[in-house]
Amino acid sequence: MSEHLRTGGTPQYPLQCDHCHYPIPGEPKERGDGHYCSGSCREAADGESTMPDPDAYKRVVTGIEPLDSLVPNGIPADSFLLLSGDEGTRRSELLTELVWRAIERGEPAVLVSFADPPTATLERFFGNGWNVLPALETDRLRIVDCFTHRLSDREAFLESRNEWQTFVGEAAADSIVTVEEPDDGPAVADALHEALDALEMTETGLVTIDSLDELGRLLQRDRVHDFVTEVRGTICTPRYVPIVAGATTAGSDKYPEDEYVFDGIVDLRLTDQFTPETRLKQLGVRKLIGTQFLPQWITYEYEPARGLFAFGSSTDAREVYDYDFGNGPRAVDRR
């Protein structure tokens, strides 16, 4: 064993390269002020180039308890994830929370909205008590609007908004990238790149798409495949910005032959397996390239402000839910 792997006769982990920060598999390329894995790294260091620590940008800890508990080392930042959920599993709330947690971390985010107009997309945040007005004002949030130009009478829609929606729309106006041809995959991709460039999103932040179902209604199936392939190759891989797209695919054969285009698939389901007469929500990672994940289902619930939280399958559902006779069952924080 080489001397640089020993300290006092005890084997140690290999040295890390002082340029790329990866382990040096053999003898290091020495230089007066450091150790390098290759001549390329040593020459780059001679030019005073220093790469950032890869752990700082190549992994994303989402801040969402059920998801992070299954992927303890973080999601690879160069991933395109499919969030596949049954109706009623709070898929849209999870997409919203992913953006909010990024903003909380001080990172930028982009939402691509096919399902709702920008004001309705933003209302999901306000409904949770998550105020995104500062993020809009400080240029940390963009909305790629793929909804408005699908309306037959856009002017009538804008005039029908109430005072609050009008205010939010005006506050967000500079943060909205409007797609005039949402049925054109390349046009949507161009708008997404425009939003990322405006926020200088490289090695930071994330993108959410709500949803592939709506995109599929606009595009032929092979064009959806092309869109996913293009943005994965031009955004996730070179920029290290993850994309999470929602779709109602659980229990169906809608995308089976296309699963390989996604780096990861997270399934959301409803089950009464553990608590008869109560349909519990569960989250599981079916696939995730580039990191380890726990092969199990996590039972979770959603609560405004708190977001999604996990609880054990052996927990009595009555300990998680309370019943409000005016509004039905509601989740209760019993931490």
UniProtKB/TrEMBL annotation:
Alphabetical UniProt keywords: ATP-binding, Nucleotide-binding
Entry superkingdom: Archaea
KaiC-like domain sequence ranges: 61-302
GO molecular function annotation: ATP binding
Protein's UniProt name: RAD55 family ATPase
Organism: Halosolutus amylolyticus
Lineage: Archaea, Methanobacteriati, Methanobacteriota, Stenosarchaea group, Halobacteria
